[in-house]
Amino acid sequence: MRGEQGAAGARVLQFTNCRILRGGKLLREDLWVRGGRILDPEKLFFEERRVADERRDCGGRILAPGFIDVQINGGFGVDFSQATEDVGSGVALVARRILSHGVTSFCPTLVTSPPEVYHKVVPQIPVKSGGPHGAGVLGLHLEGPFISREKRGAHPEAHLRSFEADAFQDLLATYGPLDNVRIVTLAPELGRSHEVIRALTARGICVSLGHSVADLRAAEDAVWSGATFITHLFNAMLPFHHRDPGIVGLLTSDRLPAGRCIFYGMIADGTHTNPAALRIAHRAHPQGLVLVTDAIPALGLGNGRHTLGQQEVEVDGLTAYVAGERPDPLGPRSQPACQVAHDPPRACPLCSQGTKTLSGSIAPMDVCVRHFLQATGCSVESALEAASLHPAQLLGLEKSKGTLDFGADADFVVLDDSLHVQATYISGPVLAGCGDPAWCWRAVWEAPVCPAHPISVILPSSVSPWPWHTPMWQTRAVRLPEQLRGGWASGALLALRTATVGSDVRGWCSPTSGVIVLTFSPFEFWGGWFPSPLLTGAVLGTGGTRLALPLFSSLRCKAQLRKCLQVQRDRMVWAPPVGREQPGKNHLPGQGLA
Amino acid sequence: MRLVILDNYDLASEWAAKYICNRIIQFKPGQDRYFTLGLPTGLPRNHPESYHSYMWNNFFKHIDIDPNNAHILDGNAADLQAECDAFENKIKEAGGIDLFVGGIGPDGHIAFNEPGSSLVSRTRLKTLAMDTILANAKYFDGDLSKVPTMALTVGVGTVMDAREVMILITGAHKAFALYKAIEEGVNHMWTVSAFQQHPRTIFVCDEDATLELRVKTVKYFKGLMHVHNKLVDPLFSMKDGN
């Protein structure tokens, strides 16, 4: 566990030249850390008369508390709701990979499953603190099976249950021992739900309302019984109606217990909620907004079919739907339902090959934060607090998590101004007699390449072009060299820029296999369409990472590329994979890499 | 005495800061140290208004001073007189103060040496005048009962022993005190006037603080600004290995 003040001999780290999120504001202050906790420098100065043992320059970046994800069903191929023999290693894999999204603590979520699955899986996922091995597990979130049939969404109907017969005993029989459980989502209109809610709250488990057709009155009564959270607002509940707002009305209800703040999860991936609805919720009750990912196992993988619990889902771009029957793959574009001609691979709900039922999301947490910031136009501080402080307040952990106040756990992320994650810090356990505490103090994930040193990746030169008469999209696949594969954030769309105007490049990256798939739009020139490999190159970036890809081997193009992109072709720069330090070097990008 | 008149508060602060910087560089500090001021007594150290917090937030946290070299009078000490004597001893051990930086109050006091303080006084416990309490009330949410009534302070004599003294005066409410300090005689009712007898004093003020001075005085010292500005010419930095 983390060291107490008794770790007075431990090293003191000072992060300078940064803006930290404290008290709801971004202050130009230094962050001091010792023994896994945030330290008060004034006490250190006057009482202990010590200075920092190590200073790290953050390059003017933002230091925010680590994000907390209270609803994540899996990721990177791991499904928490699958009863495998070794659930622990799946959780550990996800815990490690989400560090790159800035998540330092999370609640693995189990969807509606048969009781055997709960009995097998729940005891295998204990509460665990984070460290260099991965984000911390705060406890399980059990979403279902005590939910409404009409609003089950992607949850399988066969395994829905009720607790009419024995109330809390029914729940215990379904889930098994509740030691590792932190949040339970249920529908309050089910019979005897109030007894169950009270019993759960008495055990310190947070009760959430979701997948329900409850009206406002039932929801308010549930809050009086102890419910404090709403699972993915707007989704899987009755829509807002002006005479009966339903669960959505809890945001502004005046019949709640005094002083109680109702929290609500929102999936800000641009699909689950229209940005206008996101804004309405945010403006109505900003202090209760909790950003969640509701990520499914397909997070970090590519398009295609994946499982979620007992269901199959289909992923296309940033959206995931319940998989339906597969029509002829060559046919869908001519479906009459979709009148808009558009290019693949943009996800179109009408052209989707499956159903229209959303099934979780594959937007990573940092993408959600950025989208939330951009959609609501709120301040950076609000967006960051929605992902860190509010989930901590929901779980009653705001003294130690979700905050950079003195004495809190030192879990934080380093972000640039556009809120891309540059590094994630979780303090490792300070072991008694640990020979070198320095290993406890390093970023557990960093953007792999320093933005000041783009890399040249040489591709085989492309096909020589000739004018075509119809616009045609071209696809190229690139396999990254071995040393660049580790650390790519996710399979989401990368931000691309091209060296010449008039062309549009979209890319998608699979972090596991190191393959980047690029799709180029053609451009029109002299009455013909040229495929864009004519371009001198493309710059791929995600967050702070940039790769320059010269696509052509003609000398003129290389010279142009060098001029446009200032790439030094012969200079390969790479960062060591996570877990291996370079001695004597700082661990923040921009420092000492070359 | 040098009287440096700048246009406004920001410029005066900047000038003073540059001057101190230059003096430190010229001094070539090695083992020598500088001392800062006294503090109000009776508050716990972590009270946001204590002098410790004030000095930390406004000064110490921005510089790389060794904490062992920062000495602040502790208002919570058991024996306050012993604390004051110990402070005087620390000054002696450090070889005396090289540059004393202070401000003045509207009643002309330096540090907390209220009107009537002896001009040869040393570090001691001092009762505060009503004016000072009113002036400090803004740091205590305007509640007069919360403002401390006693303070540990360096004495006028202690400050006179410093090799150089710099006084910062800004704002129209200090204008009368400045007038009394430099244009009238030495008087224990305006304790700052004691520095007329100090070999190296420098007063840094803004335009508003000169409102009560004679035009002749102001013009005279403004005419010397070109000489004064040489004092703040950027010197080589200490990092260049001097």
UniProtKB/TrEMBL annotation, chain A:
Keywords recorded for this protein, A-Z: Carbohydrate metabolism, Hydrolase, Metal-binding
Domain Amidohydrolase-related: start-end pairs: 62-428
Pfam families in the cross-refs: Amidohydro_1 (PF01979)
Alphabetized GO MF terms: metal ion binding; N-acetylglucosamine-6-phosphate deacetylase activity
EC number(s) recorded for this UniProt protein: 3.5.1.25
Necessary cofactors: a divalent metal cation
Pathway where it operates: Amino-sugar metabolism; N-acetylneuraminate degradation
InterPro entries assigned: Amidohydro-rel (IPR006680), GlcNAc_6-P_deAcase (IPR003764), Metal-dep_hydrolase_composite (IPR011059), Metal_Hydrolase (IPR032466)
UniProt enzyme class: hydrolase
Catalytic activity entry: N-acetyl-D-glucosamine 6-phosphate + H2O = D-glucosamine 6-phosphate + acetate
One of the GO biological process terms: negative regulation of UDP-N-acetylglucosamine biosynthetic process
UniProt signal peptide: none
Similarity remark: Belongs to the metallo-dependent hydrolases superfamily. NagA family.
Designated name of the protein: N-acetylglucosamine-6-phosphate deacetylase
The species this protein was found in: Pan troglodytes
Highest classification ranks of the organism: Eukaryota, Metazoa, Chordata, Craniata, Vertebrata
Gene name in the database record: AMDHD2
Automatic annotation (TrEMBL), chain B:
Catalytic activity as recorded in UniProt: alpha-D-glucosamine 6-phosphate + H2O = beta-D-fructose 6-phosphate + NH4(+)
Entry-linked SUPFAM superfamilies: NagB/RpiA/CoA transferase-like (SSF100950)
The encoding gene: GNPDA2
Species this chain originates from: Pan troglodytes
Subunit structure, interactors included: Homohexamer.
NCBIfam families: nagB
GO BP term, example: N-acetylglucosamine metabolic process
Protein name (Swiss-Prot/TrEMBL): Glucosamine-6-phosphate isomerase
Listed pathway(s): Nucleotide-sugar biosynthesis; UDP-N-acetyl-alpha-D-glucosamine biosynthesis; alpha-D-glucosamine 6-phosphate from D-fructose 6-phosphate: step 1/1
